[in-house]
Amino acid sequence: MKQHLRDLLSNNVPPSEDILREVEEILVIPRQKLFETESEIRKLKNQLKFLESKREDIQKSIDEYRPITIPIRRIPPDVLAEIFYHCLPSHRNPILSESEAPVLLTRVCSSWRSLALSSPCLWARVHITFNDEYIGPYNIRVFKLRCDVVKDWLTRSGHCPLLISFHHTTRLTGLHYGFI
């Protein structure tokens, strides 16, 4: 940059018409280069957008086959059943909950459901809780449904030795034990 133009940048003096023409002449080439560069950027952005879309389509195509190739599918059922067994809580009996093994394992896919339901050792331990919420005429139906779940659980255990822990509130009466 020429010194006389640099001086104008350091003060607030209005430029003359000659200076304005000089600056406009100086800026012709940079403005043209800027225009060309922005045009090239637009083209490259469009090309990038196209390539990203193409990549996404290719990835979708690959993802379609991914479930077939995942290693867990190649594990033999007896080994997978053993892994399932090790998913059970080790410090207590499993509870009747969809959020932990063995029930959780039945919710993954149909083959895991079938394997888990046919693995008696998964169902040989259970912690049964009957709380106050199941007491009362309105909740007897819920209480009976919970008892049915326990019966199904224990039936799945087959001939495996059972380990059952049981908790109930002191408000349970002998009448309710008839459901157990």
TrEMBL record:
<keyword id="KW-0175">Coiled coil</keyword>
<feature type="coiled-coil region">
    <location>
        <begin position="34"/>
        <end position="61"/>
    </location>
</feature>
<protein>
    <recommendedName>
        <fullName>F-box domain-containing protein</fullName>
    </recommendedName>
</protein>
